[in-house]
Design a protein that fits this description.
10 strands, alpha/beta, disordered C terminus, 6-stranded mixed β-sheet, 627 residues
């Protein structure tokens, strides 16, 4: 009873997987399976018609029928064949036209999932493993979808061929003994049984072994990691031209090639082992196919000797029967593909099924003309997924819109993590963060995110136009874009660009694209933050790669731009944030001190010691600018 229930569950699972694969392809190319079936059914029908024509023409010639009848028969045949050809090519053209759309949609399914998933998954290496399996899973989905296609085509071929061979199969001969058996319907039944048994063995045993080895290779973690590594070096070296300077100056060619070859060898070794194992099963499959043909041709020859078939009918019988055996093979292969690949699609679909763990909330954020917003961290603890070490411990912090707060401390003390929690890229492990007294998890995610403009130290720009990068959209206000770029300090550079804000960044897609320096890129990111117009702005060490003078210039300039909005300035350089209303000092994931610059210096605590350690550097590099 239990075994019966397990089989039922397996069948239901297989059916669900088949329908899901079919649904994905139908979403990308509606009617794709119907077009493929129509085209292949026309091809099969045309091939069976050609067999019948060949058999009939041979018999007409052998029996000495008038040549006029033969010519007329051939003409009619040509007209019918032309009709098949036109119908087939029409369906084939539509199939090819739609195929490109389906391939593009396949990639779109993956990238939409990447873009829309919770950020907690984006930083997780296991997500990237699942993504690689999903990319390879499209190969399996094709096999499952076309396994269903093969089942339908196999049945169609068997039925259509059986209809054509039936008149020949039912014809008997005046013979006795073994030849009489061969010439009787019982002989045909015995032949079909023998051939069907051989094809089932080939399809369900040898093919299953082959597919098992192949599937094992496709899911081999070593191979997947090797392909990911190889792809990384291709993207960063062959296509990432901006890395070319470092590769040449530091002579990293040998390092890169060695790592690339090692990752490639991991993939090659897996495939070499699998192909070696597959050789035996492939050889058995070929031998079984040879046995099938031997039985089929021998049976046809014996029926001809018994007098049951004419010369042309011998050819027709052999060709029809070969199509029946081919249909059986197609059917068993299709069932084999489905039964094997659905077992591995669970892993592939794990990526698409990665859940959104964040509660997105339902409350709209309050639209206040006075911008009176208050954020508060209440005993917040946080550790990253799959880690036992807390990055933040017992954080209690409050500030209101309009305040300028600096968040300072040594690298790795938890400053950027705190911002990620504030922006709901992660949720606290313990404790809560509130906006106007309400847990931020209860607000609509999109509404809440609209409150923030953040410039991270690794903020990225894309190979779009300057305007599209600043507006983060294809629709934008040109004057507002120019104003934001100028306010961010790039007005002079922009004036030298022939295409202005329509200038494309980088040369990935536009040979006239411009390369911008690190400082210019950060200013464009600042312009993007200004353009958004959010009431809460965070600068998360966006100038870490700049010298203290340039950093001070950007911070003071941006402080004037912010105006009455709330701004949080994060930096490990204490002097950059002296102008803030309050400075929060973090140490080892906790808040060590809070106060103004003068108050914290007077306390001579953590901030005072950090200031003293950095003061000489500021004097050496910037004179009295900071003192």
């Amino acid at each position: 009873m239990k075994n019966k229930e397990n089989k039922k569950q397996k069948w239901n699972k297989t059916l669900r997987m088949v329908m899901r694969c079919h649904g994905i392809f139908e979403d990308s190319d509606k009617g794709c399976l119907a077009r493929d079936l129509t085209k292949n059914m026309l091809v099969t029908a045309n091939s069976l018609f050609a067999v019948w024509i060949t058999s009939r023409l041979i018999d007409m010639v052998v029996s000495g029928e008038p040549w006029q009848d033969i010519i007329f028969f051939a003409f009619i045949t040509g007209v019918i064949t032309l009709g098949f050809y036109l119908a087939t090519t029409t369906v084939e053209r539509r199939k090819n036209c739609h195929q490109f759309a389906r391939q593009s949609y396949d990639n779109r399914v993956l990238w939409e999932k990447v873009i829309n998933m919770d950020y907690v998954h984006v930083e997780n290496p296991e997500t990237h493993i699942a993504l690689e399996r999903m990319r390879q899973g499209f190969w399996r989905m094709n096999r499952v979808a076309y396994g269903m296609f093969n089942c339908i085509m196999g049945l169609f071929t068997i039925v259509a061929s059986a209809v054509m061979i039936l008149p020949l199969a039912l014809r008997t001969a005046d013979a006795t003994g073994f030849m009489g058996f061969i010439g009787s319907p019982w002989g045909l039944i015995a032949l079909i049984g023998a051939v069907a048994a051989i094809e089932v063995i080939r399809g369900f045993i040898t093919s299953k072994v082959t597919y098992k080895f192949l599937s094992g290779a496709m899911n081999d973690r070593k191979k997947i990691q090797g392909e990911r590594t190889s792809s990384h070096y291709v993207d960063s070296v062959l296509q990432g031209y901006r890395n070319g300077k470092d590769v040449r100056i530091f002579d990293e060619r040998e390092l890169i090639m060695r790592e690339y070859e090692n990752s490639a060898m991991d993939t090659v070794s897996v495939w070499h082992n699998v192909l070696r194992k597959m050789w035996a099963s492939d050889s058995v499959a070929s031998l079984l196919s040879l046995v099938t043909r031997f039985i089929m041709y021998g049976f046809a020859a014996l029926r001809a000797v018994s007098g049951a078939l004419s010369v042309g009918e011998i050819i027709g019988f052999v060709m029809y029967f070969s199509r029946i055996t081919g249909g059986i093979g197609t059917l068993t292969d299709g069932i084999g593909n489905i039964s094997i690949d659905v077992e591995f699609l669970d892993d592939a679909f794990k990526f698409l099924d990665i859940p959104d763990e964040k509660y997105k909330g339902t409350l709209p954020t309050e639209k206040r003309d006075d911008n009176e917003y208050e954020f508060e961290f209440k005993n917040v603890w946080f550790k990253y997924p799959n880690s036992e070490q807390y990055v933040l411990r017992g954080i209690d912090l409050k500030w209101r819109i309009g305040e300028k707060m600096a968040l300072v401390g040594k690298n790795g003390c938890g400053k950027s993590t705190l911002v990620k929690l504030l922006c709901r890229l992660y949720d606290p492990t313990e404790g809560e963060i509130t906006l106007n007294g309400i847990d931020i998890r209860k607000y609509k995610y999109e509404d809440y995110m609209a409150l923030f403009s953040v410039v991270f130290q690794d903020s990225g720009l894309f190979s779009f136009s300057i305007a599209e990068n600043v507006a983060a959209d294809t629709e934008y206000d040109p004057e507002q874009v120019r104003d934001c770029v100028e306010r961010a300090g790039l007005g002079e550079r922009l004036s030298r660009m022939e295409n202005g804000i329509d200038t494309c960044l980088y040369k990935d897609f536009d040979e006239d694209g411009v390369e911008v320096s690190g400082g210019e890129a950060q200013k464009l990111c600042l312009a993007r933050a200004i353009y958004k117009g959010a009431p809460f702005i965070v600068l998360d060490e966006p100038t870490a790669s700049l010298d203290p003078i340039s950093e001070h210039d950007i911070y003071t300039k941006f402080n004037g731009i912010v105006g009455t909005k709330t701004a949080v300035y994060i930096s490990h350089r204490l002097s950059s944030c002296r102008f803030c209303d309050e400075i929060t000092v973090m140490e080892n994931g906790t808040i060590a001190e809070r106060g103004t610059h003068d108050e914290l210096i007077a306390k001579d605590g953590v901030y005072g010691k950090l200031w003293a350690a950095q003061a000489e550097y500021y004097k050496d590099t910037a004179g009295d600018l900071y003192m």
